[in-house]
Amino acid sequence: MAGQVSSAQFLELLSSYANEDNYVTWVAIDNCISKLDLLLSYTDLSEKFAKFGINFYSKIYNELGFDIKDEKSHTENLLRSLVLLRLAKFKYAPVIEESIKRFKAHVAGTPIHPDIRSSVYRAVASSCDDETFNTFFKLYRDTDLHEEKVRLIQSTGSSGDLARIRQLLNFTFSPEVRSQDAWRVFICTVGTKLGREEAWKFFKDNADEFKRRYGSHIANAFVIEHLTNGFASEEKYKEVESFFLQNSFSGHEKVVLRSLETIKTHAEWLKRETDSVRNFLESI
User: Fold this and answer.
1) What is the distance between the alpha carbons of residues 78 and 83, in angstroms, rounded to a whole number?
2) Domain boundaries, the chain
3) Which of 193, 276, 195 minimizes the C-alpha distance to 232?
């Protein structure tokens, strides 16, 4: 992001880590991939970058698979979950298909292993039909475990379907969701460009409700930060700035300023680096 090396040079360097098997290293790698994926969603390079990502993650995926091989290997199991989730975000068919298969078995009574359950849920929610999507809400209502409720409903935020995102956003402030959970669920809708835009509309339309519920609590700080710092254009910078000038969230002024600076940095990166990334992706 600092521009000290081109993004193409960075991606070339990153490619050399495909044989890495250390969890901590993969967390750092995945953070970089996540940021690039976010930024490139504002270009016509998303599909090319997804192909690069699938190729990059496929080796470690082939080694780890879905099945837990060693219950005591905590970092390996964390790595498995990370890899499955990233490949699901890249719409990697083998991961999506196996996740749907395991989800159906889970509903029928064969539980998904807890270490990969969240990743499998999110993979399914990102690419399922309406019946399966609504199954998440049924499971949410049927379970008594609060942790499982949160995991289920947060996973539905991975959907790339506008109607489903709206369904989830409306459900967020329903009596069925605890107030202390609602903001966490809301944040999970901003992981895609489509979800981010729809969540922004919902937030603006319900700003008074967010203030009433959370006031100066850190919940609103997280909401504002996660919602706005994924934008990446001068137009969005002006829109976010204008909204918060007219709708003050007391105690969160610095959060807004940080987000505005992030939006500005994103916009500058896109202007500076898009062609470099394009040349790299088209050369491999």
Assistant:
1) 9
2) 1-92
3) 193
